[in-house]
Structure formats: structure tokens, C-alpha cells
Amino acid sequence: MLTPNMNYANLKDSYLFYNIAQKTAAYLEKNPDKRLYRMGIGDVSLPLCDAVIKALHEAVEDQASAKTFHGYMPECGAPFLREAIANYYREKGVCLKNDEVFVSSGASDELGDILDLFDKSSDALVIEPAYPAYVDANVIAGRNIIHLASGEENGFLPLPDQNTNADIIYLCSPNNPTGAVFNREQLQQWVDYANRVQAVILFDAAYEAFIEQPDLPHSIFELEGARTCAIEICSLSKTAGFTGTRLGYTVIPKQLVRKGMCLHDMWVRNRTTKTNGVSYIIQKGAAAIFTPEGQQQIKKNIQVYKENAACLMKTLDSLGIWYCGGKNAPYIWLKCPNGMSSWEFFDYLLQEVQVVGTPGEGFGKCGEGFFRFSTFGSPEDTQEAARRLADLLKK
User: Fold this and answer.
1) Could you tell me whether strands 355-356 and 370-374 are parallel, antiparallel, or unpaired per DSSP bridges?
2) CA 184 vs CA 161, 211, 376: distances in Å
3) What is the pLDDT of residue 37?
């Protein structure tokens, strides 16, 4: 008889977004005249920029002619897009070879698939609160997980425990859900630790485009020694509104070697075995993002979300509520007022002012007592939600 992967039985049921959906649906059923101001979901609200739309249309037309038609694409990414991404890094002072960039269908897919590179006996270190997929992907693989707690006392930016020996280290900066960003000194400590214990850092840089302070690193490869210990995974979902279009990229330096195995070459073999690559049309659209026109347009969209964040931060400042994130990230992580639990605060906002956020408990035990707001909504909804928050919490 077939034995399934019994590790699935060890997964905890993810009630977070299911419960949010159930609670909001029940509220609307009882209050059909009410409108909700949704600031919990991490999806974007602005459409793709003009440069991308133009490139997508051109790519569709290419597929209509035998002379310009494209069939299977290279599994690791089209050369024109790999070069465009590598040039984007070079502009930030990070020298990459084009073939160190791998094009994917999105960071979420890649964060799970990349675990193929590591034996299941490897220990994975996850900083909590955490994006739930970090934990779940390793549970499915049957891997031991080391949970590193973070909190208000360290700004949700813990440093390595020198007495812990991890093999795989998840770092997300700017962070989801907390919006906290490692500075160079802090991130250098993680790089030095990983090299010392021969671990590999999986650096989730999905929100790097939101960093505005010049002294904060956008890429882990800005740090000395990172090329021998890190893999960087990035996404165009929040950078350019590709949540429904789907494209991301992964950087694996050729110097990253463990026990005589080059992880870059291993990933080439993995991709050429397990994928047929990303479609030509989507890759052409993505390449437009890295043109001067595309960069100007996506920065204009990102600025809208930054203004949403500024609106919310101003409100929280006026209320004297502790929070992190917002300035260099699209998420604001706040401390629930009056000692409320995460779900109590969720219910309070829903019932009293029809504002929906995300309870921090859903991101791990360290998230209890905290709450996440997304800044990806429309400016009008964000402003109204901020006004309602101010009126309610001043009481």
C-alpha cells in the first residue's frame, strides 16, 4: 500500500485568513448596509504600469507570427531578463553574473522549491513572527525547525544566537509581517554567523523596493562574505503589481559551495529537471520593469503605498501606539492597545469601525498582542480607515 508523506499530518491548521474571511462574512450578513475597509490583505490595488502593459501586448503580438513566435523558454530564464535583473543589481553596486540570476514564477513558489537543495536532516532557523510558508514548507519536508523569538525589545530584529547551530536561516528584510528592516551592521552579523557555522541564508527580499533610507541594504549581497553563504529570493508582486501576473527571481552565487557541492549548479540541474520555465509573454512584461521608463512608473505606484503608510503612521503617532515598519516597508506592525489580544483587537475594529487588519497571532506565538496593517489599499480607503481608527481609539 502506498505511504503518503506523513509530514502533512504535522502541519498546524492555518486558521488565520479562513477565520478572517468567516468573521467578515458573518458581519456583512448581519450588517448588509456596512462597508468594510480592508487593510489586512497583502494584495496590491494599483494596476500594472504602462510600460509593462505595452510590453505584454507586444509579446502577445510576437506569438501571432511565425517569425517572432516563442515556444519553450530556457528553464532558468530568458537571457534578456536575466541580464536586465543583473544590471539592476549592478546599479546598486552588486556585481552579479547574468547566469547567477534564475527567473521563477514567484517568490512563494521558489521559497518552497529551493528546499530541494538541502537534506531533510538540515535544521531550519525561522525568526518569529514569520511568514507562515517558511515553517510549513519545512514541516512538509520533515525538517527540524528552530524558532528564534523576536519582540518589541529588539524591534523584531534579533541577532544570531552564537550557541545555536542552524543549517538553513530564513531572513526577510523588509520583514513580513513586522515591516522591520535590518541595518548593515545587523545583517553583517548574520552573514558572519552563517559563514562561521557553514549555514545558508535564504534571504527574502520581496519588499526591497520600499526601502527609502540610503543606509539600509536592499540586497544581502551588499554585505561582505554573503556570496559564500546566501541565496536571495525576490518578487515583482509588490514591486510592480505582479501578484496576478506572477514572476520572481532568485540569485545564487557560484561561490556558494557546501561539502564540495556547488549550489548554483545544483539549482541549474533542479530547474532543468522540474520546470519548463516562465512564459515568454510574462518575461517580456517583466523586462519592461527594469527599463528607465518602467522604473519611473513603478516608483510612482510605490509612492502611493508609501503615502498610505505615512497616513497610518501619523494616526498611530497621534494615538501614542507603538509600531514598527511603514517607513521602509509596506506593512505596519502595531501593539494592540489596552492589553488586547490580537483577535480581540480584530473584533473590536470590525464591529466598531469596520476596519479589517491581520491579527499578529497568525504569524506565530511572538505575534500575540500585535496587529498588522497593509498599506496596499486605495488612498481613499486608507484615509477613511485612519480617520475611523483615530476617532475610536481616542475614546
Assistant:
1) unpaired
2) 18, 13, 27
3) 96
Tell me the one-letter amino acid at 90: R
Residue range 50-291 forms a domain whose CATH class is alpha beta
This prediction has a pTM of 0.96
H helices present in the chain, as ranges:
16-30, 50-62, 79-91, 107-113, 132-140, 184-197, 237-240, 263-274, 280-289, 292-319, 342-353, 379-393
pLDDT tens column, 176-208: 999 999 999 999 999 999 999 999 999 999 999
338-349 pLDDT, tens digit each = 999 999 999 999
Could you tell me which of 43, 37, 40, 42 has the C-alpha nearest to residue 355? 37
Round to whole Å and give the CA distance between 364 and 379: 30
Tell me the Cα Rg of the chain.
21
Domain ranges, ordered by start, for the chain: 13-42+294-393, 50-291
Residue range 13-42+294-393 forms a domain whose CATH class is alpha beta
| Gap between the Cα atoms of 283 and 52, Å rounded | 10
Helices (H) and strands (E) in the chain, counts: 12, 15
Which portions of the chain are predicted below pLDDT 70? 14-15
